[in-house]
Structures are given as structure tokens and as C-alpha cells.
Amino acid sequence: MSTAAAPTTATPVADTPIAELDAFLGLAVDASTAWRAATIAVRGEALRAVAEGLDARADDLVLLARRETHLTEARLRGELTRTTFQLRLFADVLAEGSWLDARIDHAVADYPMGAPRPDIRRQLEGIGTVLVFAASNFPFAFSVAGGDTASALAAGNAVVLKAHPGHPHLSDLTGEIVAASLAAAGAPAGIFTVVHGIDAGVHALRHPDVRAAAFTGSIAGGRALFDIAMSRPEPIPFYGELGSVNPAFVTPGAARARATEIAEQFVASVTGSAGQLCTKPGLLLVPAGSAVVDALTATVLPAPAPLLNSSIAAGFRRSVDATAAHDGVGPLVGARGADGAPTVHVDAEGADAGDPAPVLLRTTAAAVVADPDALVSEMFGPAALVAEYDDESELVAVAKLLDGQLTATIVGDEGDAVAAELLPVLATKAGRVLWNQWPTGVSVTWAQQHGGPYPATTAVGATSVGTAAITRFLRPVAYQNVPDVLLPAALQDANPLGIPRRIDGVLQP
Amino acid sequence: MSTAAAPTTATPVADTPIAELDAFLGLAVDASTAWRAATIAVRGEALRAVAEGLDARADDLVLLARRETHLTEARLRGELTRTTFQLRLFADVLAEGSWLDARIDHAVADYPMGAPRPDIRRQLEGIGTVLVFAASNFPFAFSVAGGDTASALAAGNAVVLKAHPGHPHLSDLTGEIVAASLAAAGAPAGIFTVVHGIDAGVHALRHPDVRAAAFTGSIAGGRALFDIAMSRPEPIPFYGELGSVNPAFVTPGAARARATEIAEQFVASVTGSAGQLCTKPGLLLVPAGSAVVDALTATVLPAPAPLLNSSIAAGFRRSVDATAAHDGVGPLVGARGADGAPTVHVDAEGADAGDPAPVLLRTTAAAVVADPDALVSEMFGPAALVAEYDDESELVAVAKLLDGQLTATIVGDEGDAVAAELLPVLATKAGRVLWNQWPTGVSVTWAQQHGGPYPATTAVGATSVGTAAITRFLRPVAYQNVPDVLLPAALQDANPLGIPRRIDGVLQP
Asked: What are phi and psi for residue B389, nearest 5 degrees?
């Protein structure tokens, strides 16, 4: 239990003045230099200190988060646990040392390339100040102290955190805890700050001292920021996680064998956190007239729940209405208008008409194939489209015309020929392919991949969840013929860090 | 000795019709799918077959290259050796298996994140069809069968090679050998083609089936193509290697101890291959009035040599004239006009006035600090700017205002305090930092890094030389809860490929 003053959301949070931001960015250059040079142990301890600082203020943080996001206490406490776990995991990652990708090639006079090989040693180093745009839907795990911040700090960089306007007070409190914990752990001044306002975010994104940016949010917002980053005089890496429909494909055999279970799990995945997850399965392909359709039709969807804010709610209604209005789309289960029409809200158009009800719409796989741009489209909130197929070849046809996805799911059995055919196709479309599990609940692990081809992300080679996320904020540097005493520790002959290295092409763990 | 028909450059090479390109790109989608699924052994053998095919036609290739590029036979034979070495090295890289970055996280019920961990397995897979824009200055090693092609094919992708107009016949002959060798080794139809013409290149760059692009060339050309790639509806990774000045910093101690050696090696590095190397040291910082200046002044520069083509020669003259015309810049050694003025050509402006003579210009470090945009600027050809400094603090001042570089070089001694201060600054500016060696002659090794912050490259995390180059054309895919029998070989329990993997966070070589 914290003894600090009770947090409040009473006072509006002001936009950050540009002069203040510029002053911070000046400090951040030197902070990045110092932090990059700090030992792995120091950086790791600082990450652990941040985790401890957040844990110590958990009650205050969760209270503020509840007020500002309408998410449940259980969900928020779980998310905070995930967040501090992630910080500690990156401390472990630092100590393990593979993230440095240390390579040593000794000089070889008689090198078969036709010229002598010099001594070359290469490692990954911090890229410089990183700008992070926080997400609305994970006020801890993808916000101020979230994965982007953790991995950018771990990599040895200063961080400018552009707060999401959906939870500004929580952002400030989290930011204070992060900054104080880092300072107490010996991190340099200028290592971390939180800024508010679109102008500050865009100004930072254009600033020459910002060397990389990360973003989690909508396709429209993310693309606009991506375009700014790419049109700089010096473009910088922009790691945007934008949108995803996360299609799921149910084979005929699975539909026959496990209809009720599939329907229940699908609905739980669609409606958990009121559907406000980037990995929510928004499209389910099922055999026409199968028991899965029956089970879904018989489902009682959860009661309406508040969405994160009125802007999210309005966007959700627009996206559901657009899908529902499409030829060949009708209601399957969920809220209806007084006239039984497949609309999900009954009040004045555009107004915040109370909490939106969960809804499942129905269509056919043929309709999806005919107009994928319209029907494979994210509805951010508790909604999904169920598409019935007549022939399992339609599964592959739908898979082949997908845009990039964070995830794609197969619900099938090992013997399903169509599943074996689907899997490699889906692997070209999504960053993560699931088998008989559901895509929400993105575990933070060494093998996790949260990112896929555009528009799932703007950087197809990157992940924003899992230990590989650190690579986004690193860049390779080779040292040729540099004396041992002047080399970074990871590249010195004696391997003082005790890390895995590749010596003359041979991996030495 | 080849028995094939003697090559000729008599007939102009026509631009590739767009319809022909489109037809190839259709084939390439399926080829990429098949190639990605091919075994590592098959792909490795195909790369070796290409190397053998090129070796078998070495005489014809070198003959054509001499006619089209004016480079010397010795240089071209060496470059071809480098090129086939590189293809074979990527076959070794494939077999070693670390490039897959295979990670296996087993399911954990009681995971400290607060939710059970599913079974997740991740590897890198081919990104899809890759478009490669060939360079002019390395007609083998950065052209049709060069590093980009080798690494893209190794990664499991089809390749569309946009030929450089400077050596079109060589490009066609090389392309025929590559395609025939790949076909004979069992690679699918549509795996590789050569196209000609700007329209074909831009059309391919905009084509939705092209999933990544690589380029080596000028800042202006590379940025234009980068902008096209980034403005696509679905942006794709664009790996451009653009321009670099490759500054070298001589400490006072080194200048005192080794003036003649430094001058000789510097001049050799500036004038080798007529200075047409992206790592040519274009700026040398030396103590004012030091013996290095004397040694350089006494140098007899090599005789004028033909540049690659008249466009390169004209660009070289423009860039040297622009630098020479700057306040505070004068001639150090090299060709002069009849009036002794520091101009490098004496004939009609803009005309191809014979082969340009090598030239060294001189200025002060203070002048560089005052106008780095003008004086730290690439002169592609046999020229460099020698900047004299009065105080060694100017070395750090110049280093701090550099744009991104491929390389930066320190000529010093271990005890030089300024060298220890310079090194970490240069590591933020360049992809490769050298000590008492010169940056030309980029060795192809596991630890090589050929790429740096913009404008050296458009993708600061990537290299176009060395084994890490393969990563550019791969993307991560995670498989969650997928049955062993359906998993890619690298992720199956039994490790049938025998490759290094990370199991539950622990690296297992």
C-alpha cells in the first residue's frame, strides 16, 4: 500500500511546450551517450528498479487506470504484472548477452576472397534517442512503461514518451515513477520523459536528435506518423503496429468435432477486454450451416461494457455499421435495432449511445473473396464477422488475398489436408500463426512475434513484444583493427562479459 | 576457357517491356513460395552452382566488363573472385543455420507474467520477391550476381535484378549464367531475371508482389527510390546504400611518427579503382603544417585514368569544382588549370574533357566545422579534401557534426587521449570504425558491417556486405501450438537440421 498522495484526474493535463521538449531532447543526446556506455549490469538494475517502483505504487496506478480507461481492476492488475515482468525480462536479456550479436573475425592473411582479411569485430549498439507513442488500449503494457520503453531503455537509449490522451494522468504518474526509479538507479539526467499533445509528438518525430520511433495504434494515425518519419531529411526507423483482423479458419473436421468449444472460445476471445485488443479475431471462417454456426447463434454475448473512451466507441460503431451495411452481411447474434435490423446502436447517429453491445455479423466466404477490402477490415471493439464457406478450398482462397496480419489461426486436426495447405500461406500473411488456440493474450517470451506485413506493422522484420523487440533500437557497428583496450567490452579478446559470441564464424555460447 | 560464343557489346540493350516484367513477377510469387520451402541444402547447392557457372565463364565476363566499365583486368578478376566467394559463403551460412534465429519456448502453466505461456516457436523466413538495383562501380560484386542477389536468393526469395545502364551486356551475360545455373540446380522457374530501364525498375518497385528492395548508388537516386518504396500503399523495406565521405582522423602523435606511410596509404586508398569506391576516404584531418601535409604535397598522384562512364566523370568534376570553389579551399596536389587555379579540368565546362586527374584539395578543420554540409560532401572519383587542424579538440568537433557514414578511420596510437575520445563518437556516426587501416577493400566476413546512419544507408540496422546481409530479406514468423509434423524443420523437436537454437531462452549451439 502506498503512502503517497492519492492520485487525481481532476485537473486537465496541459500539452507539453515545444521549448520544454527541445530542452529535454538536448539532454537526451548526452543521456543516450552515457547510457549506451553504461554496463549491462547497471542498465539491468535500472530496469528492475523501474519494475519495483511500479509494483510499489500498484494501487495508485490501477486506481487511476480504472478511472481513465474503464478497464476492469482484474485486467489492469494483470496488465501491470505483465508490464513489470517485461521490464525484469529485459534485464535478463541484457545479462544473457546474445542481443549484442557479438562477432569477432580475426585477421587472415590467406583469405579465399582474394585479399587478406583484417581483424573485424561487430556488435549492436544503442541507436540514440527513441520516441515512443503510447497506445490507448494497454495503459500499462503498451504505454509509458510498456514494451517499447523497456526495450529502448534496455538497448541503451533515452526515451521520449508521447502519452496517449486517453490516460494522461496515469501517464504522468507512471512517468514520474519511471524517471525517479531510473534516477535512483544511477541513470543519467535526460534518460526519460513524458510529453503530451500531438504537436509535441510530431515535433519530436521531426527532430534530428530523435533516431527511431515506435507506435501502437490505428492504421490512419500510424501511417500519418510513418509518412512524417520517412519524409525527414534523414529518415529514421518507424516501428508502427497498426491494425489487424486476425482471421481464424475452422476446418470441417474441427467444426464437426468441437463446435461448442470453438464457439465459446471464439466469443471469449472476441469480447475479452471489450474486444479492444489488436489480436482480437475479427473474422471466423466456418463451414456453412455447421454446428459452429448453430452454437454461435445460440450464444448469449456478454453485456455491453464501456469502451476506453468515446472516440474508440464512435469508431467502433462506424466500423461495425460499415461492415453490416455491406451486401451479403447480416446479423448473426448480438444487439439489434428496434426493427431487427443489423445495426449495433439504436440511438442518435454519431452520439455516444451508451456502451456498445457485442455483436457477431455473418456473411459468406464468397462475399469475402469478392470484396476483401470491405470485409477483411478491423472493427476495434467487441465485434467479429463470421463467414460461412461451402468448400474448404475457399479457406485457401481467403488466406491468399489477406493483407498483412499480426496473427492468423487455424482450428483443425493434424490430418486435415486443408490445414497443411493453409499453414504456409498464412505464414506469409501473419507474424504469428496459431493452431487450436486463440490469438488474444500475447505472451511475452523469447520466441514471441508481434508484428506482420503491412498494415499489421510498418516494419515487417520487427516485433514489439518478446525479447527480440530490443533489436529495433540497436544498430550494428564494426571495429576494424582496433586495439583490445579501446574495444567495447563485448568485443575484447577476454570476453569480460561472458556472453555468447561468434568467433571466426563459429558460435561460441 | 569457355567455348561459348564470344560476347559482344555491339547491339544496344533494349529496355524491358512492362508486360514482360509483370509476367515474370507473377511467376516469381510462386517461385518465392517454392524456394522458401526448398531445403537449406538445395538452396546452398544452387548458390554454389551459380559460383561455378560464373567461374567457368570468367574470361568472357571479364572481357565484357573491361569494355563496359574501363576497370582494369586485375581489378575485375579480383572482383569476380570476391563475387563467387560471396556466393559460396552464403551457402556456408545457410548450412550453419544461425540465420534462421530459431527459438522454441515450451508451454509453461505457471508463467510469472501472470498467464500461462503457450508453446511458441519462431524462425526467420524469406520475405518474398526482392528487387535489386545494381551498382555501376562493382560490375560483379554489387551487380547482377552480387551480394544483394546472393543474400536474397540464400534467404529463399525470387530476385528481380534491375541492371545498371553502365554495363548492360555484362548484366545480360551474368544474368544468363545465374539463371541457367539456378535452373540446372533445380531452382523453380521465375526465381531470377534481369530487367533494363528506369521504367521497369520503378514499375517493379511499385508492384505489390515485390516485398523488399536493395540499392547501391547515389544519394539523389537512392532517395528518390526510397521515397517511392515508402509511399506505396504497402511500404516495403528499402535497403539503400547511398553516399559516404569516410573521414579519416590523424592524431598528432601518428602524424609525427609515420607521416610518409600515412600519406602513401591515404593516396593509395583515395586513388585505387580511380576513387570510385563508396568507402574511399574523402576527408583527411591532419595536424596543420605537419609532416603528413609535407608528404602529401610531395606526392606524385597516379596518372589520369578513365572513370566508369561519362556520367560518373561529369559528376566527379562537378563535385570537385564545387568543393574547390568554396572559401578557404585550395589545391594541395593534383591537376591544375593553366593559370594554376585549383580546378581539375581545363577543357570546356560540362564536356567530357578527357580522363579526370586525381586531386587533393586542402582546407582547415575550422572551415569544415563552419560549413560541414559543403565540405563533408562526397566526390565520387579520385579526389579528397585534406583539412588541417590547429588543436586536436577540432577532431572531436568535426566528428560530432558528421552525417552518417559507411566508415570512419582513426590513425593514431593506443595512448592518444584524443583517439579514445574520438572512437565512441565515430561509432555513432559510422557503421565501421577503423584503426590504422584504410576503409577501401571491404572484406566479406561474418563480422563485416557495410552500412551506417543516413545518408550512408536508408536502413541503419542493415549491412549489404557480410553474412548478416541475409537478414534484410527475411521476416520472423512465430508458430503457436502447432503440431510438430506441421512445423518448419528448424522448429521441430528433433532439430532435424542440426542448427543452433534458443530453447526456453537458452542458446543451444
From this structure: -115, 150
